[in-house]
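We now fix the convention by which a protein and its fold are recorded. The integers have meaning only within a learned vocabulary of local backbone shapes. The record below shows the convention in full.
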Amino acid sequence: MGREIELKIPLDAAEYDELLCTIQGNKKLSGVSFGSVEHFLKSDTYFSKFAIEEERREAVKLGKEPKVIRIRSEESEGQKKSYFCIKYKTIQNGVEFNSENETLVQDEAPLQLFMEVAGYKKYFEKNKDSFAVYCKSEVDSEVEFHLELVMVNGHKYVEIEVTQSELEPDRIGHALEAFVRQFGLDPAKKDSRSWMEIIRGAEN
């Protein structure tokens, strides 16, 4: 089990391209150091016992179902891995706090069959094209930031998370906002909606 504290900010095409140049080292950014950039293609399938979204949300609120039940397929440099995840998530001042249990899955097929037998159905899918990198910053030298520049079902965002459970949440929240400003982005534009809400909102 781990804790994630995350900010998610929408980007326009120019902001996306500039950030990609920065994390790949083609543009300098004072006060920030970057690790190796990894390119991932991720496909997420979400499951629930409830076909109607309002019923699913009520079940989550009552503790009858986790916020997220997911199978993720991830491909990088020709290698594919799959993970099964159960996640509980809360929002505080627009910042996500996630408690997550995740395990590597050798073969998705038996797990998908079990989900069907147990009464869980697929209710949402998303596809993510991601450039991911670990960063250190002068805003707080003890914080390790994981930055993902993503395109999800056509939507361009930057997701930045910190998973260090030994650090105080308020400290991490302040560091995240200061880190975002280093890229010339406004942390007030953070989007606390789920990807399903973002994608389906655009479809409606």
Notes: The CA atoms of residues 147 and 160 lie 4 Å apart. The radius of gyration is 17 Å. The mean pLDDT is 91. Helices lie at 13-23, 53-61, 108-117, 169-182, 195-203.
